Amino acid sequence: MKHIEYREIDENVYQDTLENGLEVFLIQKSGYNKKFVTYTAKYGSMDNRFEVNDETYSVPDGIAHFLEHKMFEKEDGDVFDSFAKGGANANAFTSYDRTSYLFSTTDDFYKNLSLLMEMVEQPYFTEDTVEREIGIINEEIRMYQDNPGYRLYFDTISQMYDELPVKIDIAGTESSISEITKDHLYLCHDVFYHPSNMVLIMVGDFDIDETFGFIREHQDSRGPIEPLDVRRILPEETREVVKRKNDLYMDVKETKVMLGFKNEKIDSASERLTRDIAMMFGLDMMFGEQSDHYYRLLEEGIIDDSFNFAHNEEKDFAHVLMTTQTDDPERFISSILEIIDEIKAQDFFTDEKLVNQKREVLGDYLSSLNSPEYIANQYTKYHLDGYDLYKLPDLIEEITVDDIKKYIFDSLDADYLVECVLRPETQKEAVHG
Fold first, then answer.
1. What is the mean pLDDT of residues 330-341?
2. Active-site residue among 11, 51, 68, 397?
3. Distance from CA of residue 296 to its chain's centroid?
4. What angle is formed at CA 119 by the lines to CA 118 and CA 122, rounded to 5 degrees?
5. Cα–Cα dist 1/138, whole Å
6. Whose CB among 1, 203, 225, 338 lies 3.0–4.6 Å from 27's, allowing a Cys bridge?
7. CA 65 to CA 69: how far, in whole Å?
8. How many other CB atoms are found less than 10 A from the CB of residue 310?
9. Topology (CATH) of 2-232
10. Percentage of the chain with pLDDT > 90?
11. 124-175: pLDDT as tens digits
12. Which of 348, 131, 382 has the alpha carbon at shortest distance from 276?
């Protein structure tokens, strides 16, 4: 077992990799009553093609999310009920690159930890339960298809990405979900829920040796587990966009627009994180609620308080999204592009602005370290991406104005811009009348 001490922020992490390959992290928060745990498989919605021991497999889209749903259902009932009886709050989620199962509790920690590990490690699927779940998830997919914000987002993503499965909803499609069988589920569980492909992270006040001893005993009881040679297969994706402009019509009252700037992926974990932080600083200086540009756009009625922007940095893709409700989407688009051109032509980003940004972000970061939920989820995210949550302050301090200019100007390139406008159905009738 390894002990990592972060003296500057008074944090302590204990880490071990067990004989079966499972990585375990215990983050000690002395005096905390609540304990929070995540048990995560490095398996997400994009893992629909893979190679295991030199044999290639293709599975239906949405299977990672489907599997997440089914892991709570066992032969003797719903595990959610068991967590509730044990005084714990449990949940799970699937993203593009991982599936996490989690719980928080102030009582019966070992009972709930054992329940979590057994639930994740022991699948139970039958043809009847799979068929029933197909109906449930397809109903969920249909519901999302009627959601304007959902449709606007995925239409924008589909305009940007040609081959990468990021353009497919994490839940899959009605067609793909209907193809899933219990054999698919068992295959993906065997491959991606292998202990060497998982990480267990616990945050709270623990007896270190006792907790690690409990986990080792549980994992040893599973017996020998053969190692697997697994390789994920993803298609090549260029930076070129698929479709620059698109109009979407739905039963809505107001027009909404989303812009997407597609970027190149970065292989280096540290450079990925540097770009992510630099983009966060740069976008906030340009369009944050304290910026002059934001106030001008708001006062001129080009945006309203629904205006939002985000930089998404993942291992296999990166992009910037901007959205607002507006009566004049063309004016919004041209205004955003004009602001970008203006900033490129002047010394907009300054050390003074950056110092203020860093102070605010570091303050929020340090406050967040009081939350076991934040620590467990973010430590998981950064660890799987090849970085360390507790080294963020050092990286934040290293960001320079030149970093911001470099990444902002490259990312907000109009050559890789897509525009998606969601309009009321009545406008379509008027156009085609």
1. 97
2. 68
3. 32
4. 70
5. 45
6. 203
7. 6
8. 12
9. Cytochrome Bc1 Complex; Chain A, domain 1 (3.30.830)
10. 95
11. 999 999 999 999 999 999 998 899 999 999 999 999 999 999 999 999 999 9
12. 382
Distances, alpha carbon 327 to alpha carbons 1, 253, 335, 336, 405, in Å: 60, 11, 14, 15, 32
b/e per residue 356-372 (b: at least 16 CB within 10 A) = ebbeebeeebeeebeeb
Catalytic site includes residue 210: no
Q: Are 37 and 116 in contact (CB under 8 A)?
A: yes
Residue 331: what residue type? R
Q: Is the pTM of this model over 0.85?
A: yes
- Which amino acid type is present at position 433? G
Q: How far apart are CA 273 and CA 395, in angstroms?
A: 8
Confidence of residue 429 (pLDDT cuts 50, 70, 90): low
Q: CB 166: neighbour CB atoms within 10 A?
A: 22
Please list the helix, strand and coil fractions of the chain in percent, rounded to the nearest 5, in that order. 45, 20, 30
- Give counts: helices (H), strands (E), the chain: 16, 17
The pair of three-digit structure tokens given for residue 30, joined into one six-digit string? 């002395």
The pLDDT of residue 431: 56
3-state secondary structure of 204: strand
> What long-range pairs does 285-292 form, CB within 8 A, spacing at least 24?
285/348, 285/349, 285/353, 285/354, 285/357, 285/404, 286/339, 286/340, 286/343, 286/348, 286/408, 287/322, 287/339
H or E element: which one contains 246?
Answer: strand 245-250
Residue ranges per domain, the chain? 2-232, 245-432
Residue with tokens 């009553």: 33
Helix (H) or strand (E) holding 86: none
Domain 245-432 belongs in CATH node 2.60.40.10: no
